[in-house]
Amino acid sequence: MRENVIPVDGMVITEDTRFAPGVYPLQQGVTLAVDGIIVEGEGALLVNTSRQGVGVHAENRRGVTVRGLALSGFYHGLRFDGCRDVLVEDVRVRNTYEIEGIDTFLYLWNPIEEVYSGAILLNGVQGGVVRGCDLQHQMNGILLYATNGVTLADNNASFNSGWGVYLSGSNENIVQDNRLDFCNRIYRRPESGAIRVEADAAGIVLVESSCRNHLLRNSCLCGGDGIFIAGYNHKGGKTTCDDNLIEGNDCRLSPNNAIESTFSRGNIFRRNDCSRSNYGFWMGYSWDNVMEDNIIDSCRMVGIAIEHGHGFVIRRNQIQNNREGVRLFTRGGATLEHWREWAVSYDYTLEDNLIEQNRIGFNGYTGPEIPLDQVSYDLRLRGNTFKGNITGARFHRVRQAALTGNTFQGNQRAALLIEEPGVALADNQFADNAEAILHTSELGHTTERSGWV
Fold first, then answer.
1. Fewer CB atoms inside 10 Å of the end CB: C or N, the chain?
2. What is the average pLDDT value for the chain, to the nearest integer?
3. Is this prediction's pTM over 0.85?
4. Residue 161: closest CA among 111, 104, 122
5. C-alpha 155 chain-centroid distance
6. 2-16, 153-167, 238-252, 325-339: least confident range
7. Domain spans, the chain
8. pLDDT tens-digit profile of 78-88?
9. How many Cβ atoms from other residues are within 10 Å of residue 67's Cβ?
10. Hey, how many other C-beta atoms are within 10 angstroms of the C-beta on 216?
């Protein structure tokens, strides 16, 4: 390895290199030009005050390693195109380029030719590891395009104005044990001038058919969303993000959704904490998902909200102190022009959940704009505990609903509020409720999520 090398602008590196400590202004960055080389830079800082270009670039290389280097400025700190088995560790990147602030809503589906700025970009990379990197205080942390089989672990990409980790068309990656907190953005809505934390910023984003990824034990506190999975692009394309495992993540304190996962199939959400957010889970138009052993406590609107979904199993979750615990509903809307097969919500199993101290524990309904032949149906609730809610469970304009073996205790208005026929009861236990079953035509609580899904 060459020792104490002074980096120069536009340097092409062809052998193992360790930079000398120091601060180096480089407008053109450096290029890794052969396979298998190692570049180390502990104590070296590469700076580009124009915030353009790439600090370290490799294209069509295999087995390259970048370790211990610090970069500031540039458009991308490090960029790898068409590479294999990349290793990036203990790298620090700051102050890459950012788009304009308060009046700019992020666009989730930029092609690689229009990619946003960020600390690290992996484009078309097959295999590799990014670990132990400090990627805070810029727009984006790690961007993956068409990248497969990479592990992102123990990185800190917090306090970014866009995304901590972003995956577009990227499969079978592992994103684990990262800190991706406070990835959020202030946005001024043009129609009203209202200023909110939103604009599709998030700790982790999956788009454009990013499938079979594992998101494990990440901290995504206080994100615009904690985790955002979007299987439908802005041009109407069905780009579902399927068969992902989302387990053990801390997504609390989002002003929007702790986890939003829409238009996608076969995802598993296990042991995540989605508490103290506007919504815990927002799962519109998704299907064949499993939600188990999650904690959803003290959300302002709804713990688990699913519109126009089907094939869900929701089990062993702790759903407490929300305005609504679980809302399964059909309401129509312009989205159905592209997703006509999803006109009706149906086929839900809720089992062995603790649903406690919510205004409404369970709310299954169909909106008044929907014809009677398209109401929500096949809602199966079994073995759940409804305790201390104002209303334990409410059913409005549904059919083929079945409640079996549930416990209703201490619900303050009624254990069950049934506003239409079509609800079958068997072997449920009732104790200390103000009313056991209250039949009414009253519409009741119908709070809706504002904004476009």
1. N
2. 94
3. yes
4. 104
5. 17
6. 325-339
7. 307-453
8. 999 999 999 99
9. 16
10. 18
Residues 6 or more apart in contact with residue 133 via CB below 8 angstroms: 88, 89, 90, 91, 92, 93, 119, 120, 155, 156, 157
CB count within 10 Å of CB 372 equals 9
Residue 442 pLDDT: 59
Q: How far apart are CA 219 and CA 2, in angstroms?
A: 39
Instruction: Name the residue type at position 186.
Output: I
- How far apart CA 44 and CA 393 sit, in angstroms, is 61
Least confident interval from 122-136, 214-228, 356-370: 356-370
Among 225, 74, 209, residue whose Cα is nearest residue 135: 74
Residue 443 is predicted with a pLDDT of 53
Residue 137 contacts by C-beta under 8 Å, 6 or more apart in sequence?
94, 95, 159, 160
Round to whole Å and give the CA distance between 1 and 309. Answer: 57
